[in-house]
């Protein structure tokens, strides 16, 4: 049981390049999330998904796109990378929030540098 | 979601209990208190959550005051591996978690 797996773990891009970060979970969770964390700060929500085929914007969605074609995968795309997107990106998943308020389970992050 | 206030940093001796406070004076009736921690360079790890009753699991205890305006996370026997940033989050839904700056807990040998 791997939990939440993020690919790749590290990446360096040049300004203007595009890339996709992959998040996979094997816990059959309905909800998935993408966060970014800048140095010395807490996590900020970029986008999230409440189920296969659905996505929604979080606190800082600009410059990112997401897709949830399969329940177990949540992809984060950068169409034209900018230095301001240099950050550590974390993916998380959880069961349906609902009244049970199930906690989020996080991956170990992708460290992305944009030159 | 209600705002939380935590000390920036705390120290604790190894083997002693670590008591991490959190103020959330504007918490509303349907909001839960969540605690996560983040060990350096790793993803956040869920610790515990509660609504109004005190909670305990294998990692920690959560004490919520009767008026729910503050809470304390207790690590009963802190080890060096408990050194981390601890986040107190108040939210009406586990889907909407806002991470602040947290408390840097350093466990000293």
Overall description:
Chain A has no helices and eleven strands. With 115 residues, chain A is mainly beta. In chain A, strands 2, 4, 5, 6, 9, 10 and 11 form a seven-stranded mixed β-sheet that branches. A four-stranded antiparallel β-sheet of chain A has the order 1-3-8-7, with no helix packed on it. In chain A, strand 7 and strand 8 form a beta hairpin. The mean pLDDT of chain A is 91. A five-stranded mixed β-sheet of chain B has the order 1-9-8-3-4, with no helix packed on it. The mean pLDDT of chain B is 92. Chain B has no helices and nine strands. Classes of the chains: A mainly beta (115), B mainly beta (109). At the A-B interface, strand 4, strand 5, strand 9 and strand 10 of A face strand 3 and strand 4 of B.
Strand order of the largest sheet of chain B: 1-9-8-3-4
Tally of contiguous helical segments of chain B: 0
Shape of chain A, please?
Answer: globular
Biggest β-sheet description of chain B: 5 strands, mixed
Structural class of chain A, by secondary structure, is mainly beta
Low-pLDDT regions of chain A: none
Assembly type: heterodimer
Strand content of chain A: over 45%
Query: How many β-strands of chain A, per DSSP?
Result: 11
């Amino acid at each position: 049981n791997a939990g939440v797996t993020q690919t790749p773990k590290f990446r360096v891009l040049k300004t203007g390049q595009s890339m996709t970060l992959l998040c996979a979970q094997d816990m059959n969770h309905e909800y998935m999330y993408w966060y970014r964390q800048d140095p010395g700060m807490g996590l900020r929500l970029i986008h999230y998904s409440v189920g296969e085929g659905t996505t929604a914007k979080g606190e800082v969605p600009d410059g990112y796109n997401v897709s949830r074609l399969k329940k177990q995968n949540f992809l984060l795309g950068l169409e034209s990378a900018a230095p301001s997107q240099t950050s550590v990106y974390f993916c998380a998943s959880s069961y349906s929030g609902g009244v049970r308020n199930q906690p989020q389970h996080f991956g170990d992050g992708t460290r992305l540098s944009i030159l | 979601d209600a705002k939380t206030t935590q000390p920036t940093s705390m120290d604790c001796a190894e083997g002693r209990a670590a008591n991490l406070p959190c103020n959330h004076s504007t918490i509303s009736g349907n909001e839960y208190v969540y605690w996560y921690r983040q060990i350096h360079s790793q993803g956040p790890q869920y610790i515990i959550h509660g609504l109004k009753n005190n909670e305990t699991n294998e990692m920690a205890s959560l004490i919520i005051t009767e008026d729910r305006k503050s809470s304390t996370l207790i690590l009963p026997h802190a080890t060096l591996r408990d050194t981390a940033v601890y986040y107190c989050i108040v939210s009406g839904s586990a889907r909407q978690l806002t991470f602040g700056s947290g408390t840097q807990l350093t466990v000293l040998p």
